[in-house]
């Protein structure tokens, strides 16, 4: 106790401004609470989990051909601090200038167009968010960071850097949640009442497995519901609640993603790729592919990609 008092006395002597600020804030606290049993409640929803931070410092570090990196079940927040880019989120082009932030919900296509600068400073925060429904991408536009937002981001980075601290994970989760709710207030209204395990939702995983096992079949929602042993209406409602997008859209975009992977990693023609994934009309396939991914199927062929890189 004596040592603690000694440390406090040293702080008083060396940082009078700090003590004055703290005293001033203490004096603004009411002397008597109106209700001794009613205080500030904690956030009632679940917190971000399994948080990963990484950065991009150069245009060459961006994934150019790995379509799988653009369509997954984790949440992604991108902070653009240097360099300009257009990020295509589903069908929407989003221009990102320095100081911009974009939130990408799970299972939404995203890729980068028109990266203006060679030198970048982008921070990516990806995480699972159990029990939280994803808003539609149309509800989430890029936002500009304020000075207060920058201070919050600085706190996130400082907490992440202290990974030897046993409280690092909990503090990081709280700080990331604070940044999210401040930048994107709509998220405060998107909680599920029931707990959903961290990671890919079980129902999404079951649907994905069925699609993987039947790549040549153009399965309908009714087909998938029958294979899972539940009604189509129940499947639709539960899938949207878990994934934040409709099941029909997920199935359509899953097939397009698989087509993109085949086109970028094999010598199959566009026609053969479309047929292999159950598309009966190559023209309808090409239109849907271009509309959803923002690029033509032929542009992903290995030969065309290498020609583009050599220009």
Record keyword descriptors for this entry.
311 residues; alpha+beta; Jelly Rolls; Arc Repressor Mutant, subunit A; three-stranded antiparallel β-sheet; 11 helices; AraC_XylS_family_regulators; transcription regulation
Strand order of the largest sheet: 1-7-2-5-8
Q: How many H/I helical runs? A: 11
* Straight-line N-to-C gap: 71 Å
CATH architecture verdict of the largest domain: Sandwich
Instruction: Enumerate the spans where pLDDT stays under 50 for 5 or more consecutive residues.
Output: 192-198
Tell me about the largest β-sheet. Answer: 5 strands, antiparallel
Fold topology:
Blueprint: H1 2-14, H2 16-27, E1 49-58, E2 75-82, E3 85-89, E4 92-96, E5 100-104, E6 110-113, E7 119-128, E8 143-144, H3 147-161, H4 168-183, H5 202-213, H6 221-228, H7 232-243, H8 247-265, H9 270-276, H10 282-293, H11 302-310
Antiparallel strand pairs: 1-7, 2-5, 2-7, 3-4, 3-6, 5-8
Helix pairs in contact: 3-4
Structure overview:
With 311 residues, the protein is of the alpha+beta class. The chain has two domains: 49-189, Jelly Rolls (Sandwich), CATH 2.60.120.280; 202-300, Homeodomain-like (Arc Repressor Mutant, subunit A), CATH 1.10.10. The chain is 43% helix and 16% strand. The chain has eleven helices and eight strands. The protein has helices at residues 2-14, 16-27, 147-161, 168-183, 202-213, 221-228, 232-243, 247-265, 270-276, 282-293, 302-310; strands spanning 49-58, 75-82, 85-89, 92-96, 100-104, 110-113, 119-128, 143-144. The strands form two sheets. Strands 1-7-2-5-8 form a five-stranded antiparallel β-sheet, covered by helices on one side. A hairpin with a 2-residue loop joins strand 3 (85-89) and strand 4 (92-96). Residues 192-198 have low confidence and may be disordered.
């Amino acid at each position: 106790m004596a040592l603690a008092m000694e440390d406090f006395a040293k702080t008083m002597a060396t940082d009078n401004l700090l003590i004055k600020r703290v005293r001033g804030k203490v004096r603004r606290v009411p002397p008597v609470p109106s209700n001794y049993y009613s205080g500030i409640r904690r956030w009632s929803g679940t917190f971000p989990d399994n948080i990963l931070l990484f950065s991009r410092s150069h245009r060459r570090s961006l994934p150019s051909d790995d379509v799988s990196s653009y369509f997954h079940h984790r949440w992604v927040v991108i902070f653009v601090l240097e360099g300009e880019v257009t990020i295509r989120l589903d069908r929407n082009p989003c221009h990102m200038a320095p100081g911009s932030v974009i939130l990408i919900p799970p299972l939404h296509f995203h890729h980068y167009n028109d990266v203006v600068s060679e030198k970048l400073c982008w921070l990516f925060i990806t995480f699972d968010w159990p029990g939280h429904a994803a808003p539609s991408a149309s509800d989430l536009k890029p936002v500009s960071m304020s000075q207060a937002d920058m201070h919050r981001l600085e706190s996130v980075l400082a907490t992440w850097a202290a990974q030897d601290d046993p409280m690092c994970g909990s503090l990081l989760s709280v700080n990331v949640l604070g940044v999210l709710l401040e930048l994107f207030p709509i998220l405060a209204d998107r909680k599920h009442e029931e707990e959903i395990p961290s990671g890919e939702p079980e129902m999404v995983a079951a649907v994905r497995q069925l699609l993987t096992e039947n790549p040549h079949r153009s399965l309908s929602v009714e087909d998938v519901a029958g294979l899972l042993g539940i009604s189509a209406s129940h499947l639709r409602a539960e899938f949207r609640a878990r994934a934040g997008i409709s099941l029909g859209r997920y199935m359509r975009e899953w097939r397009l993603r698989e087509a993109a992977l085949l086109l970028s990693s094999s010598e199959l023609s566009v026609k053969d790729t479309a047929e292999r994934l159950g598309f009966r009309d190559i023209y309808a396939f090409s239109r849907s592919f271009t509309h959803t991914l923002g690029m033509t199927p032929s542009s992903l062929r290995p030969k065309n990609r290498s020609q583009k890189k050599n220009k």
